[in-house]
Design goal:
The complex is a heterodimer of chains A (329) and B (256).
Chain A: E1 7-10, E2 13-14, E3 17-18, H1 21-36, E4 40-46, H2 49-53, E5 61-66, H3 75-88, E6 93-97, H4 100-113, E7 116-127, E8 130-137, E9 142-148, E10 152-156, E11 174-177, E12 188-194, E13 208-212, H5 222-232, E14 235-238, H6 240-244, E15 265-269, H7 275-281, E16 286-290, E17 304-306, H8 310-328
Parallel strand pairs in A: 1-4, 1-6, 4-5, 5-11, 6-10, 7-10, 13-14, 13-15, 15-16, 16-17
Antiparallel strand pairs in A: 2-3, 7-8, 8-9
Chain B: E1 2-7, E2 9-11, E3 33-35, H1 37-53, E4 56-62, H2 67-77, E5 81-86, H3 95-107, E6 113-117, H4 128-136, E7 140-149, E8 154-160, E9 166-172, E10 175-179, H5 191-200, E11 204-207, E12 218-223, E13 232-233, H6 238-251
Parallel strand pairs in B: 1-4, 1-6, 4-5, 5-11, 6-10, 7-10
Antiparallel strand pairs in B: 2-3, 7-8, 8-9
The chains are: A alpha/beta (329), B alpha/beta (256).
Protein backbone atom coordinates (compact mmCIF):
# COMPACT_ATOMS: atom_id res chain seq x y z
CA UNK A 1 0.00 0.00 0.00
CA UNK A 2 1.55 3.30 -1.02
CA UNK A 3 -0.71 5.50 1.10
CA UNK A 4 1.26 7.60 3.57
CA UNK A 5 4.58 6.24 2.35
CA UNK A 6 5.55 8.49 -0.52
CA UNK A 7 7.62 11.61 0.08
CA UNK A 8 6.84 14.64 -2.02
CA UNK A 9 9.22 17.50 -2.59
CA UNK A 10 7.61 20.75 -3.68
CA UNK A 11 9.81 22.15 -6.44
CA UNK A 12 10.34 25.84 -5.89
CA UNK A 13 11.32 27.91 -8.89
CA UNK A 14 11.78 31.59 -9.54
CA UNK A 15 12.34 33.38 -12.85
CA UNK A 16 12.55 30.12 -14.79
CA UNK A 17 15.12 28.42 -12.56
CA UNK A 18 14.67 25.70 -9.96
CA UNK A 19 15.74 27.10 -6.58
CA UNK A 20 18.91 25.33 -5.31
CA UNK A 21 17.28 24.26 -2.03
CA UNK A 22 15.03 21.93 -4.00
CA UNK A 23 18.04 19.63 -4.52
CA UNK A 24 18.72 19.60 -0.77
CA UNK A 25 15.11 18.51 -0.25
CA UNK A 26 15.37 15.83 -2.94
CA UNK A 27 18.46 14.42 -1.22
CA UNK A 28 16.73 14.34 2.18
CA UNK A 29 13.54 13.06 0.59
CA UNK A 30 15.35 10.10 -0.96
CA UNK A 31 16.54 8.91 2.47
CA UNK A 32 13.09 9.39 4.00
CA UNK A 33 11.28 7.64 1.14
CA UNK A 34 13.56 4.63 1.45
CA UNK A 35 12.99 4.46 5.21
CA UNK A 36 9.21 4.70 4.76
CA UNK A 37 9.12 2.22 1.89
CA UNK A 38 7.69 4.76 -0.51
CA UNK A 39 8.62 6.70 -3.61
CA UNK A 40 10.27 10.09 -3.94
CA UNK A 41 8.09 12.41 -5.99
CA UNK A 42 9.01 15.91 -7.15
CA UNK A 43 5.90 18.09 -7.44
CA UNK A 44 6.33 20.72 -10.11
CA UNK A 45 3.73 23.37 -10.88
CA UNK A 46 4.30 26.08 -13.42
CA UNK A 47 4.53 27.05 -17.02
CA UNK A 48 6.88 25.35 -19.48
CA UNK A 49 7.21 22.44 -17.07
CA UNK A 50 9.39 20.14 -19.24
CA UNK A 51 12.34 22.54 -19.18
CA UNK A 52 11.95 23.16 -15.46
CA UNK A 53 11.81 19.39 -14.83
CA UNK A 54 15.13 18.69 -16.56
CA UNK A 55 17.32 18.75 -13.40
CA UNK A 56 14.87 16.73 -11.26
CA UNK A 57 16.05 13.26 -12.20
CA UNK A 58 16.85 12.37 -8.59
CA UNK A 59 13.13 11.84 -7.99
CA UNK A 60 11.37 8.60 -8.95
CA UNK A 61 8.88 10.74 -10.83
CA UNK A 62 8.01 14.36 -11.42
CA UNK A 63 4.32 14.96 -10.80
CA UNK A 64 3.58 18.09 -12.77
CA UNK A 65 0.86 20.49 -13.81
CA UNK A 66 1.65 22.86 -16.67
CA UNK A 67 -0.67 25.84 -16.66
CA UNK A 68 -0.45 29.59 -17.22
CA UNK A 69 -2.17 30.26 -13.90
CA UNK A 70 0.62 28.45 -12.05
CA UNK A 71 3.44 30.35 -13.76
CA UNK A 72 3.93 32.79 -10.90
CA UNK A 73 3.49 31.51 -7.38
CA UNK A 74 0.48 32.34 -5.28
CA UNK A 75 -0.29 30.31 -2.16
CA UNK A 76 -3.89 29.86 -3.28
CA UNK A 77 -3.25 28.45 -6.77
CA UNK A 78 -0.32 26.25 -5.78
CA UNK A 79 -1.75 24.88 -2.51
CA UNK A 80 -5.07 24.04 -4.18
CA UNK A 81 -3.32 22.26 -7.02
CA UNK A 82 -1.00 20.25 -4.75
CA UNK A 83 -4.03 19.37 -2.64
CA UNK A 84 -5.93 18.10 -5.67
CA UNK A 85 -2.95 15.95 -6.65
CA UNK A 86 -2.78 14.56 -3.11
CA UNK A 87 -6.39 13.41 -3.10
CA UNK A 88 -5.65 10.51 -5.40
CA UNK A 89 -1.99 10.02 -4.52
CA UNK A 90 -1.73 10.80 -0.80
CA UNK A 91 1.85 11.37 0.37
CA UNK A 92 3.27 10.69 3.83
CA UNK A 93 5.38 13.81 3.81
CA UNK A 94 5.53 16.98 1.77
CA UNK A 95 8.88 18.77 2.05
CA UNK A 96 8.99 22.51 1.31
CA UNK A 97 11.74 25.05 1.85
CA UNK A 98 11.33 27.35 4.84
CA UNK A 99 11.34 30.14 2.29
CA UNK A 100 9.01 32.91 1.16
CA UNK A 101 7.30 30.42 -1.15
CA UNK A 102 7.52 27.36 1.09
CA UNK A 103 6.07 28.80 4.27
CA UNK A 104 3.12 30.28 2.36
CA UNK A 105 2.42 27.04 0.55
CA UNK A 106 2.87 24.78 3.57
CA UNK A 107 0.33 26.43 5.85
CA UNK A 108 -2.41 26.57 3.25
CA UNK A 109 -1.68 22.99 2.19
CA UNK A 110 -1.65 21.68 5.77
CA UNK A 111 -5.21 22.94 6.24
CA UNK A 112 -6.44 21.64 2.88
CA UNK A 113 -4.87 18.20 3.41
CA UNK A 114 -5.77 18.15 7.12
CA UNK A 115 -2.13 17.30 7.63
CA UNK A 116 0.19 18.05 10.54
CA UNK A 117 2.85 20.68 10.04
CA UNK A 118 6.31 21.16 11.49
CA UNK A 119 8.28 24.28 10.63
CA UNK A 120 11.94 25.32 10.46
CA UNK A 121 13.15 21.73 10.34
CA UNK A 122 16.92 21.34 10.62
CA UNK A 123 17.00 17.52 10.68
CA UNK A 124 14.54 14.72 9.97
CA UNK A 125 14.81 10.96 10.20
CA UNK A 126 12.68 7.85 10.53
CA UNK A 127 12.89 5.95 13.84
CA UNK A 128 10.99 2.65 14.13
CA UNK A 129 8.71 3.72 11.29
CA UNK A 130 7.98 7.09 12.87
CA UNK A 131 9.12 10.39 11.43
CA UNK A 132 11.17 12.43 13.89
CA UNK A 133 11.96 16.03 13.05
CA UNK A 134 14.19 18.53 14.79
CA UNK A 135 13.11 22.14 14.50
CA UNK A 136 14.88 25.35 15.26
CA UNK A 137 13.16 27.71 17.69
CA UNK A 138 13.86 31.16 19.09
CA UNK A 139 16.27 32.27 16.40
CA UNK A 140 18.41 29.15 16.74
CA UNK A 141 18.82 29.35 20.52
CA UNK A 142 16.72 26.21 21.03
CA UNK A 143 16.04 22.99 19.17
CA UNK A 144 12.93 20.86 19.52
CA UNK A 145 12.72 17.20 18.56
CA UNK A 146 9.18 16.06 17.72
CA UNK A 147 7.30 12.94 16.60
CA UNK A 148 5.54 13.97 13.42
CA UNK A 149 2.12 12.39 12.81
CA UNK A 150 1.49 11.50 9.17
CA UNK A 151 0.56 12.91 6.78
CA UNK A 152 2.61 16.01 7.44
CA UNK A 153 4.02 19.07 5.76
CA UNK A 154 7.55 20.08 6.77
CA UNK A 155 9.23 23.40 6.04
CA UNK A 156 12.96 22.74 5.96
CA UNK A 157 15.73 25.25 6.64
CA UNK A 158 18.07 26.04 3.78
CA UNK A 159 21.44 24.31 4.13
CA UNK A 160 20.07 21.59 6.44
CA UNK A 161 20.97 18.89 3.93
CA UNK A 162 23.63 18.63 1.22
CA UNK A 163 22.43 19.46 -2.27
CA UNK A 164 24.68 16.88 -3.94
CA UNK A 165 22.44 13.94 -3.02
CA UNK A 166 19.54 15.58 -4.85
CA UNK A 167 21.41 16.36 -8.03
CA UNK A 168 21.16 13.93 -10.94
CA UNK A 169 21.88 13.87 -14.63
CA UNK A 170 19.22 11.17 -15.13
CA UNK A 171 16.30 12.16 -17.33
CA UNK A 172 13.27 12.85 -15.16
CA UNK A 173 10.15 10.69 -15.43
CA UNK A 174 7.50 13.32 -16.08
CA UNK A 175 3.95 12.52 -14.97
CA UNK A 176 1.91 15.40 -16.36
CA UNK A 177 -1.55 15.95 -14.86
CA UNK A 178 -4.32 18.27 -16.07
CA UNK A 179 -4.94 21.57 -14.31
CA UNK A 180 -7.58 21.07 -11.61
CA UNK A 181 -10.92 22.94 -11.92
CA UNK A 182 -10.19 24.81 -8.67
CA UNK A 183 -7.87 27.05 -10.70
CA UNK A 184 -10.96 28.55 -12.37
CA UNK A 185 -11.96 30.28 -9.15
CA UNK A 186 -8.89 32.04 -7.79
CA UNK A 187 -9.04 35.13 -5.62
CA UNK A 188 -5.34 36.04 -5.86
CA UNK A 189 -3.70 37.19 -9.07
CA UNK A 190 0.01 37.72 -9.70
CA UNK A 191 0.55 41.12 -11.30
CA UNK A 192 4.31 41.42 -11.89
CA UNK A 193 7.79 40.82 -10.50
CA UNK A 194 9.66 43.92 -9.42
CA UNK A 195 13.46 43.77 -9.50
CA UNK A 196 15.50 45.80 -6.98
CA UNK A 197 16.37 49.30 -8.11
CA UNK A 198 19.82 49.64 -9.63
CA UNK A 199 22.20 52.29 -8.35
CA UNK A 200 23.48 50.96 -5.05
CA UNK A 201 26.57 48.75 -4.85
CA UNK A 202 26.24 45.01 -5.37
CA UNK A 203 27.32 43.59 -2.00
CA UNK A 204 27.66 40.12 -3.55
CA UNK A 205 30.73 41.42 -5.40
CA UNK A 206 32.45 43.17 -2.49
CA UNK A 207 35.51 41.39 -0.99
CA UNK A 208 35.09 42.72 2.54
CA UNK A 209 31.77 43.24 4.27
CA UNK A 210 31.16 44.79 7.67
CA UNK A 211 27.71 43.63 8.67
CA UNK A 212 25.63 45.29 11.36
CA UNK A 213 22.73 43.78 13.26
CA UNK A 214 20.37 44.81 16.00
CA UNK A 215 23.38 45.41 18.25
CA UNK A 216 24.21 48.60 16.35
CA UNK A 217 21.23 50.01 18.30
CA UNK A 218 20.53 53.16 16.28
CA UNK A 219 21.12 54.71 12.88
CA UNK A 220 23.44 57.30 14.38
CA UNK A 221 25.91 54.49 15.15
CA UNK A 222 26.24 53.39 11.52
CA UNK A 223 29.25 55.69 10.82
CA UNK A 224 31.27 53.45 13.16
CA UNK A 225 30.67 50.48 10.86
CA UNK A 226 31.21 52.64 7.77
CA UNK A 227 34.57 53.85 9.04
CA UNK A 228 35.60 50.29 9.80
CA UNK A 229 34.48 49.15 6.35
CA UNK A 230 36.42 51.97 4.74
CA UNK A 231 39.61 51.03 6.57
CA UNK A 232 39.20 47.39 5.53
CA UNK A 233 38.45 48.32 1.91
CA UNK A 234 34.90 47.08 2.12
CA UNK A 235 31.27 48.08 2.44
CA UNK A 236 28.56 47.96 5.07
CA UNK A 237 25.70 45.50 4.93
CA UNK A 238 23.11 44.42 7.48
CA UNK A 239 20.76 41.81 8.86
CA UNK A 240 17.00 42.14 8.54
CA UNK A 241 16.22 44.20 11.69
CA UNK A 242 18.46 47.03 10.50
CA UNK A 243 16.87 47.04 7.04
CA UNK A 244 13.36 46.90 8.53
CA UNK A 245 14.18 50.03 10.51
CA UNK A 246 15.00 51.78 7.24
CA UNK A 247 18.57 52.53 8.32
CA UNK A 248 20.08 50.92 5.21
CA UNK A 249 18.50 50.14 1.82
CA UNK A 250 17.11 46.69 1.00
CA UNK A 251 20.04 46.16 -1.39
CA UNK A 252 22.32 45.88 1.67
CA UNK A 253 20.38 43.03 3.32
CA UNK A 254 22.21 39.74 3.74
CA UNK A 255 20.18 36.59 4.33
CA UNK A 256 17.73 34.13 2.92
CA UNK A 257 15.46 36.88 1.66
CA UNK A 258 18.30 39.29 0.93
CA UNK A 259 21.59 38.71 -0.79
CA UNK A 260 23.75 35.60 -0.62
CA UNK A 261 27.35 36.79 -0.16
CA UNK A 262 30.74 35.06 -0.11
CA UNK A 263 33.28 37.79 0.67
CA UNK A 264 36.88 37.19 1.70
CA UNK A 265 36.09 38.72 5.10
CA UNK A 266 32.70 39.02 6.79
CA UNK A 267 32.90 41.03 10.00
CA UNK A 268 29.61 40.70 11.88
CA UNK A 269 28.93 43.41 14.46
CA UNK A 270 26.07 42.83 16.89
CA UNK A 271 24.45 40.11 14.77
CA UNK A 272 22.86 37.24 16.69
CA UNK A 273 23.06 34.73 13.84
CA UNK A 274 19.46 33.77 13.13
CA UNK A 275 19.22 31.13 10.41
CA UNK A 276 17.62 33.69 8.08
CA UNK A 277 20.85 35.67 8.16
CA UNK A 278 23.32 32.78 8.32
CA UNK A 279 21.95 31.32 5.09
CA UNK A 280 23.21 34.40 3.31
CA UNK A 281 26.79 34.53 4.63
CA UNK A 282 27.90 31.12 5.91
CA UNK A 283 30.16 30.52 2.91
CA UNK A 284 32.28 33.64 3.44
CA UNK A 285 36.01 32.94 3.39
CA UNK A 286 36.66 34.30 6.88
CA UNK A 287 33.91 35.14 9.35
CA UNK A 288 34.65 37.22 12.43
CA UNK A 289 31.84 37.96 14.88
CA UNK A 290 31.68 40.50 17.67
CA UNK A 291 28.68 40.07 19.95
CA UNK A 292 28.09 40.71 23.64
CA UNK A 293 26.16 37.42 24.01
CA UNK A 294 28.71 34.58 24.25
CA UNK A 295 25.92 32.10 23.39
CA UNK A 296 24.83 33.92 20.22
CA UNK A 297 24.40 31.43 17.33
CA UNK A 298 26.65 33.60 15.14
CA UNK A 299 29.62 32.13 17.00
CA UNK A 300 28.68 28.68 15.69
CA UNK A 301 29.25 29.79 12.12
CA UNK A 302 32.10 32.29 12.68
CA UNK A 303 35.75 31.29 12.45
CA UNK A 304 36.80 33.80 15.09
CA UNK A 305 34.74 35.53 17.74
CA UNK A 306 35.00 38.24 20.33
CA UNK A 307 32.34 38.08 23.06
CA UNK A 308 32.19 41.76 23.93
CA UNK A 309 30.18 44.90 23.31
CA UNK A 310 30.83 46.03 19.75
CA UNK A 311 31.09 49.61 20.99
CA UNK A 312 34.06 48.59 23.14
CA UNK A 313 35.82 46.65 20.38
CA UNK A 314 35.08 48.49 17.11
CA UNK A 315 36.75 51.80 18.14
CA UNK A 316 39.86 49.88 19.23
CA UNK A 317 39.88 48.02 15.91
CA UNK A 318 39.52 51.30 14.01
CA UNK A 319 42.45 52.82 15.92
CA UNK A 320 44.57 49.72 15.30
CA UNK A 321 43.83 49.75 11.57
CA UNK A 322 44.63 53.47 11.34
CA UNK A 323 47.87 52.94 13.21
CA UNK A 324 48.81 50.08 10.93
CA UNK A 325 47.98 52.16 7.89
CA UNK A 326 50.09 55.09 9.13
CA UNK A 327 53.02 52.79 9.91
CA UNK A 328 52.83 51.28 6.42
CA UNK A 329 52.88 54.75 4.85
CA UNK B 1 -12.50 49.01 5.86
CA UNK B 2 -12.37 46.95 8.99
CA UNK B 3 -8.90 45.62 9.77
CA UNK B 4 -8.02 43.09 12.45
CA UNK B 5 -4.40 42.60 13.40
CA UNK B 6 -3.42 39.59 15.49
CA UNK B 7 -0.64 40.07 18.02
CA UNK B 8 1.41 37.26 19.57
CA UNK B 9 3.72 37.41 22.56
CA UNK B 10 7.00 35.52 22.24
CA UNK B 11 9.96 34.88 24.57
CA UNK B 12 12.34 37.81 24.88
CA UNK B 13 15.59 36.54 23.43
CA UNK B 14 17.57 39.07 25.41
CA UNK B 15 16.89 36.86 28.45
CA UNK B 16 18.53 33.49 29.02
CA UNK B 17 16.14 30.74 27.92
CA UNK B 18 15.75 27.79 30.30
CA UNK B 19 14.22 24.42 29.55
CA UNK B 20 11.81 22.88 32.07
CA UNK B 21 12.65 19.86 34.20
CA UNK B 22 10.80 17.49 31.85
CA UNK B 23 13.08 18.68 29.04
CA UNK B 24 10.20 19.21 26.63
CA UNK B 25 9.26 22.89 26.94
CA UNK B 26 10.54 26.29 27.91
CA UNK B 27 10.57 27.01 31.62
CA UNK B 28 8.10 29.90 31.72
CA UNK B 29 8.58 30.77 35.40
CA UNK B 30 11.03 33.60 34.77
CA UNK B 31 10.35 34.06 31.09
CA UNK B 32 9.82 37.58 29.84
CA UNK B 33 7.55 38.02 26.81
CA UNK B 34 7.64 40.66 24.10
CA UNK B 35 5.50 41.32 21.06
CA UNK B 36 6.60 39.23 18.09
CA UNK B 37 8.63 41.47 15.80
CA UNK B 38 6.68 40.80 12.61
CA UNK B 39 3.40 41.38 14.51
CA UNK B 40 4.69 44.83 15.45
CA UNK B 41 5.13 45.42 11.72
CA UNK B 42 1.66 44.00 11.02
CA UNK B 43 0.22 46.53 13.46
CA UNK B 44 2.15 49.32 11.75
CA UNK B 45 0.86 48.12 8.37
CA UNK B 46 -2.72 48.17 9.70
CA UNK B 47 -2.34 51.65 11.16
CA UNK B 48 -0.76 52.94 7.93
CA UNK B 49 -3.78 51.69 5.97
CA UNK B 50 -6.12 53.35 8.47
CA UNK B 51 -4.15 56.61 8.21
CA UNK B 52 -4.55 56.57 4.41
CA UNK B 53 -8.04 55.18 3.98
CA UNK B 54 -9.86 55.50 7.28
CA UNK B 55 -11.71 52.55 8.76
CA UNK B 56 -11.01 50.81 12.01
CA UNK B 57 -8.22 48.69 13.43
CA UNK B 58 -8.80 46.01 16.05
CA UNK B 59 -5.79 44.53 17.82
CA UNK B 60 -6.60 40.95 18.83
CA UNK B 61 -4.45 38.81 21.10
CA UNK B 62 -4.56 35.80 23.37
CA UNK B 63 -4.53 36.38 27.10
CA UNK B 64 -0.93 35.36 27.67
CA UNK B 65 2.29 37.03 28.73
CA UNK B 66 2.13 40.76 29.33
CA UNK B 67 -0.51 41.17 26.65
CA UNK B 68 -2.47 43.98 28.32
CA UNK B 69 0.50 46.31 28.00
CA UNK B 70 0.86 45.30 24.34
CA UNK B 71 -2.83 45.97 23.63
CA UNK B 72 -2.73 49.33 25.42
CA UNK B 73 0.34 50.21 23.34
CA UNK B 74 -1.61 49.31 20.19
CA UNK B 75 -4.46 51.55 21.34
CA UNK B 76 -1.99 54.35 22.08
CA UNK B 77 -0.59 54.02 18.58
CA UNK B 78 -4.03 54.42 17.03
CA UNK B 79 -5.90 51.11 17.13
CA UNK B 80 -9.61 51.52 17.78
CA UNK B 81 -10.08 48.37 19.83
CA UNK B 82 -7.83 46.11 21.86
CA UNK B 83 -9.45 42.72 22.30
CA UNK B 84 -8.19 39.83 24.40
CA UNK B 85 -9.19 36.19 23.90
CA UNK B 86 -9.72 34.82 27.41
CA UNK B 87 -10.63 31.46 28.97
CA UNK B 88 -7.91 29.71 27.01
CA UNK B 89 -6.97 26.06 27.36
CA UNK B 90 -4.41 25.49 30.11
CA UNK B 91 -0.74 25.90 29.21
CA UNK B 92 0.84 27.33 26.09
CA UNK B 93 -1.50 27.14 23.08
CA UNK B 94 0.23 25.54 20.07
CA UNK B 95 0.07 27.59 16.89
CA UNK B 96 -2.28 25.23 15.07
CA UNK B 97 -4.71 25.28 17.99
CA UNK B 98 -4.38 29.06 18.25
CA UNK B 99 -5.26 29.36 14.56
CA UNK B 100 -8.41 27.26 15.13
CA UNK B 101 -9.43 29.47 18.07
CA UNK B 102 -8.78 32.70 16.16
CA UNK B 103 -10.69 31.35 13.15
CA UNK B 104 -13.78 30.80 15.31
CA UNK B 105 -13.43 34.23 16.93
CA UNK B 106 -13.05 35.91 13.55
CA UNK B 107 -16.08 34.17 12.10
CA UNK B 108 -18.18 36.08 14.60
CA UNK B 109 -16.17 39.29 14.12
CA UNK B 110 -15.66 39.48 10.34
CA UNK B 111 -13.07 41.86 8.91
CA UNK B 112 -12.16 43.07 5.43
CA UNK B 113 -8.50 42.44 6.13
CA UNK B 114 -6.79 40.26 8.72
CA UNK B 115 -3.11 40.95 9.29
CA UNK B 116 -0.59 39.02 11.38
CA UNK B 117 3.16 38.63 11.44
CA UNK B 118 4.11 35.95 8.92
CA UNK B 119 5.92 33.91 11.55
CA UNK B 120 6.96 34.04 15.18
CA UNK B 121 10.19 32.76 16.73
CA UNK B 122 8.22 30.28 18.84
CA UNK B 123 6.36 28.68 15.89
CA UNK B 124 6.67 24.91 15.77
CA UNK B 125 3.49 23.38 14.31
CA UNK B 126 2.69 26.08 11.79
CA UNK B 127 2.61 29.78 11.06
CA UNK B 128 -0.56 31.57 12.10
CA UNK B 129 -1.67 33.70 9.13
CA UNK B 130 -1.36 30.95 6.52
CA UNK B 131 -3.26 28.51 8.73
CA UNK B 132 -5.90 31.15 9.38
CA UNK B 133 -6.41 31.82 5.70
CA UNK B 134 -6.95 28.11 5.14
CA UNK B 135 -9.31 27.65 8.08
CA UNK B 136 -11.40 30.68 7.10
CA UNK B 137 -11.21 29.80 3.40
CA UNK B 138 -9.95 33.30 2.67
CA UNK B 139 -7.27 34.21 0.15
CA UNK B 140 -3.86 34.46 1.78
CA UNK B 141 -0.47 35.88 0.87
CA UNK B 142 2.48 36.07 3.25
CA UNK B 143 6.01 37.46 3.55
CA UNK B 144 4.81 40.90 2.53
CA UNK B 145 6.62 44.21 2.73
CA UNK B 146 3.68 46.39 1.73
CA UNK B 147 -0.11 46.20 1.52
CA UNK B 148 -2.30 48.78 -0.22
CA UNK B 149 -6.00 48.88 -0.96
CA UNK B 150 -6.53 49.01 -4.72
CA UNK B 151 -10.31 49.15 -4.88
CA UNK B 152 -13.36 48.57 -2.77
CA UNK B 153 -12.76 44.86 -2.58
CA UNK B 154 -9.14 44.33 -3.58
CA UNK B 155 -5.70 44.91 -2.14
CA UNK B 156 -2.28 44.79 -3.76
CA UNK B 157 0.51 43.25 -1.72
CA UNK B 158 4.25 43.15 -2.25
CA UNK B 159 5.63 39.71 -1.45
CA UNK B 160 9.35 39.41 -0.86
CA UNK B 161 11.60 36.92 -2.64
CA UNK B 162 15.37 36.38 -2.38
CA UNK B 163 17.77 38.88 -3.86
CA UNK B 164 15.47 41.85 -3.33
CA UNK B 165 12.91 40.69 -5.90
CA UNK B 166 9.31 41.49 -5.05
CA UNK B 167 6.11 39.99 -6.44
CA UNK B 168 3.12 42.27 -6.76
CA UNK B 169 -0.04 40.23 -6.15
CA UNK B 170 -3.66 41.36 -6.23
CA UNK B 171 -5.86 39.85 -3.52
CA UNK B 172 -9.63 39.92 -3.32
CA UNK B 173 -10.98 41.00 0.06
CA UNK B 174 -11.68 39.75 2.65
CA UNK B 175 -8.21 38.27 2.93
CA UNK B 176 -5.50 37.26 5.37
CA UNK B 177 -2.01 38.72 4.96
CA UNK B 178 1.16 37.48 6.66
CA UNK B 179 3.29 40.57 7.18
CA UNK B 180 7.07 40.37 7.17
CA UNK B 181 7.59 44.09 7.54
CA UNK B 182 5.66 47.31 7.11
CA UNK B 183 6.72 49.90 4.52
CA UNK B 184 8.20 51.95 7.38
CA UNK B 185 9.44 51.11 10.89
CA UNK B 186 6.82 50.62 13.62
CA UNK B 187 5.79 54.00 15.02
CA UNK B 188 7.03 55.18 18.38
CA UNK B 189 4.56 56.05 21.09
CA UNK B 190 5.63 57.84 24.28
CA UNK B 191 5.19 55.97 27.57
CA UNK B 192 3.09 58.88 28.85
CA UNK B 193 0.61 58.30 26.04
CA UNK B 194 0.37 54.59 26.88
CA UNK B 195 -0.20 55.45 30.56
CA UNK B 196 -2.94 57.86 29.54
CA UNK B 197 -4.63 55.20 27.40
CA UNK B 198 -4.58 52.67 30.25
CA UNK B 199 -6.70 55.14 32.24
CA UNK B 200 -9.09 56.18 29.48
CA UNK B 201 -9.65 53.02 27.41
CA UNK B 202 -10.72 49.48 28.19
CA UNK B 203 -9.54 46.23 26.70
CA UNK B 204 -12.48 44.20 25.47
CA UNK B 205 -12.60 40.43 25.91
CA UNK B 206 -13.98 37.47 24.03
CA UNK B 207 -14.12 33.95 25.42
CA UNK B 208 -12.13 31.36 23.51
CA UNK B 209 -14.59 29.14 21.67
CA UNK B 210 -14.27 25.45 22.36
CA UNK B 211 -12.44 23.96 19.39
CA UNK B 212 -10.80 20.57 19.23
CA UNK B 213 -7.02 20.67 19.38
CA UNK B 214 -5.74 19.63 15.95
CA UNK B 215 -3.25 16.78 15.59
CA UNK B 216 0.18 18.13 16.36
CA UNK B 217 3.69 16.81 16.61
CA UNK B 218 4.48 15.45 20.08
CA UNK B 219 7.59 16.98 21.60
CA UNK B 220 10.21 14.37 22.45
CA UNK B 221 12.76 16.80 23.82
CA UNK B 222 13.83 20.41 23.75
CA UNK B 223 17.49 21.26 23.95
CA UNK B 224 20.07 23.94 23.35
CA UNK B 225 21.98 23.31 20.14
CA UNK B 226 25.49 21.95 20.28
CA UNK B 227 27.22 22.73 17.05
CA UNK B 228 30.05 20.74 15.61
CA UNK B 229 31.91 23.93 14.93
CA UNK B 230 32.42 27.00 17.05
CA UNK B 231 34.41 30.15 16.59
CA UNK B 232 37.85 30.35 18.08
CA UNK B 233 37.23 33.01 20.70
CA UNK B 234 39.69 35.87 21.06
CA UNK B 235 39.88 36.54 24.77
CA UNK B 236 41.15 39.31 27.01
CA UNK B 237 40.71 43.06 26.86
CA UNK B 238 39.40 44.67 23.66
CA UNK B 239 42.97 45.78 22.94
CA UNK B 240 44.31 42.23 23.33
CA UNK B 241 41.52 40.68 21.24
CA UNK B 242 41.95 43.31 18.51
CA UNK B 243 45.73 42.79 18.41
CA UNK B 244 45.17 39.07 17.89
CA UNK B 245 42.51 39.76 15.25
CA UNK B 246 44.81 42.13 13.35
CA UNK B 247 47.43 39.36 13.27
CA UNK B 248 44.89 36.88 11.92
CA UNK B 249 43.66 39.27 9.24
CA UNK B 250 47.23 40.01 8.18
CA UNK B 251 48.12 36.30 8.04
CA UNK B 252 45.00 35.57 5.98
CA UNK B 253 45.96 38.31 3.53
CA UNK B 254 42.91 40.46 4.25
CA UNK B 255 45.11 43.38 5.35
CA UNK B 256 47.69 44.75 3.04
Amino acid sequence: MSEFRDVWVYVEHLKGTVVPQTFELLGAGRTLAQALGGRLVAVLLGRDVPSLAAPLGAADSVLAVDDERLGSFTPEAHSRTVHQLSVTLPPALVLCGASSTGIDLAAALAVLMNAAMTVNVAAVTVVDGRVVATSQLCGGKLMCEVDVPLPAILTVLGGAFPAEAGASTRAPQLDLKPAPPVLDHLRTKPVRLIEPAAGDIDIARVPVLVAVGRGIQRKENLPLAEELAGLLGGEVCASRPVIDQGWLPLSRQVGKSGMIVKPTLYLALGISGASEHVEGMKDAGLIVAINSDPHAPIFDVAHYGIAADLFDVAPVLIDALKERSTAAA
Amino acid sequence: MKITVILTMVPDLVEELEIDSAGTALDTQWLRYVLSESDDHALEQALTLKDRHGGTVTALAMDEGDVDQTLFTALAKGADEGCKVISLPEGPVPRRHAAAIYAEVLRSRPSDLILAGVQAISDLDGHLPGLLGGLLDLPYVGVTRAVEFSGTDTAVVHKEYPGGTTAEIEVRLPAVIGVLSAPQPPRYVPVARIREVTKTKKITTVAAPAVAAPAAAAVRRMFKPEHATHAQMLEGTPEAAVAELIGILATRGVLR
